[in-house]
Design brief:
The protein is of the alpha/beta class. The protein has 2 domains: 134 residues, Urease, subunit C, domain 1; 233 residues, TIM Barrel (Alpha-Beta Barrel). The chain is built from 15 helices and 18 strands.
């Protein structure tokens, strides 16, 4: 792995520390010393820790969305699942292989600055696929689909999965209160009775939480993944997000699958801020939402020693964005796919403008390709253009996937 230094950037090391300076990479880690190849950013780029998506269904990232009939909304997730499997979208998606969908899902995340993601499926279904992807998809977690009689019975059972998470210092991840039927509404109570409501919990959605549930979650030290766009599309409501924040719950953000949620994390961030303003007539601070997809998310995954900030010794997961706003947090909160200048995973450049090609040895190496994004020629790990062309051939028409910011040259 090459050593390099990004010089004269606006470095956002955490939600509390911003300075003009440099970021160096040595042996996959952030270094405190200027090393190797020097790239001068001329004060025109903002350097952030790369983003973390705490909830995605990487088998389900396809468009268009599938949801309730106009004017109707779901009581819980189950009728949506039935609608999905009966839909034209699902039949069309079935022309693609599982590997195709997972690779598209990786690019959905990479093109919005995400380097670490959770695929909400049990390891038995994804363990052979995740290590081959061009993104870091976490593999160390305990998982239950849900805590109800009609969940999908993933994993080895709620208590066994939780015990494994505690033993290994992993997150225990489950959908919780994704709906308003009696079972959905009693998820926190069930975990409490089983003695597994604790700091390992990463609870997805939580739209049916009572005020008491929120306080219990805060006291336990658990985290939640807020998936507002998906919630509003399916249920016409989302969790009591302001009360979660006021209670001190560790709040993170997930996209959910593109079948119901935002098509990538940038769009989810834009949606969340607009919805918060609509619900509460006040702004959700850009610094707060930045923390949700960096520091908070790393903590929820039990990876805070390695990810979430650009502190020396942590993994060099770096996101460079164009500087378009003097406030680096507002700059982040308003970013789009076309604003990414460079993205690295453990110091390895995986997506970037050609001016950074020296970090890969001076030319596009084997295993990479070039695409055009927003009028810029960019290198990208893998070959998403070839994947896109092949997918269109399998589907039978010129399918457009909004989470891909380019049109392939055929």
């Amino acid at each position: 792995m090459a050593e390099y230094t990004l010089l004269n950037g606006i470095v956002v090391n955490s939600s509390r520390k911003v300075s003009t300076g440099f970021i160096s990479v040595e042996r996959e880690k952030v270094s405190g010393n200027k090393k190797g190849t020097i790239v001068d950013l001329d004060g025109a780029s903002v350097v952030y820790p790369a983003l973390i998506n705490t909830h995605d269904h990487m088998r389900g990232n396809y468009l268009p969305r599938v949801g309730p009939k106009p004017g109707n909304f779901y009581l819980n997730w189950l009728p949506w699942d039935n609608d999905l499997k009966a839909s034209d979208t699902y039949r069309e998606r079935s022309n693609l292989s599982i590997e195709d969908i997972y690779t598209f899902s990786s690019y959905k995340n990479l093109f919005s600055g995400v380097t670490t993601v959770n695929d909400h499926f049990p390891q038995a279904l994804n363990k052979d696929i995740l290590p081959k992807l061009p993104i870091r998809a976490i593999t160390n977690y305990g998982l239950a689909h849900e805590v109800s009689s009609y969940d999908l019975k993933w994993g080895d059972g709620v208590e066994v999965e939780h015990k494994r998470a505690v033993k290994n210092k992993w997150p225990f991840i489950t959908h919780l209160a994704e709906g308003f039927d009696e079972e959905s509404m009693n998820g926190v109570e069930k975990l409490e009775k089983m003695g597994i409501l604790d700091k390992h919990g990463l609870f997805i959605h939580c739209i049916g939480f009572s005020d008491e549930d929120i306080q219990k979650t805060a006291k336990a030290g658990a985290s939640i993944s807020w998936c507002a766009a998906s919630n509003m599309f399916m249920f016409n409501t989302t969790c009591k997000i302001r009360k979660f924040l006021e209670a001190g719950v560790n709040v993170t953000i997930g996209t959910d699958s593109a079948h119901t949620g935002s098509f990538n994390l940038f769009e989810e961030i834009h949606y969340d801020r607009a919805l918060y303003r609509q619900l509460y007539e006040e702004d959700l601070p850009a610094k707060t939402i930045f923390k949700m997809v960096t520091e908070n998310a790393a903590r929820a995954f039990w990876l805070q020693k390695d990810l979430g900030t650009l502190e020396e010794g942590k993994s060099a997961d770096i996101l460079l964005l164009k500087s378009k706003n003097e406030d680096p947090f507002e700059n982040f909160a308003g970013a789009n796919m076309e604003d990414i200048e460079l993205l690295t995973i453990a110091g390895k450049p995986v997506f970037g403008e050609m001016r950074f090609i020296d970090l890969l040895g001076g030319s596009v190496p084997e295993g990479y390709s070039q695409i055009n994004v927003g009028g810029r020629s960019m290198f990208i790990i893998g070959d998403p253009a070839k994947l896109y062309i092949e997918a269109r051939r399998k589907i039978g028409f010129k399918k457009v996937l909004d989470f891909l910011p380019f049109e392939p040259e055929e």
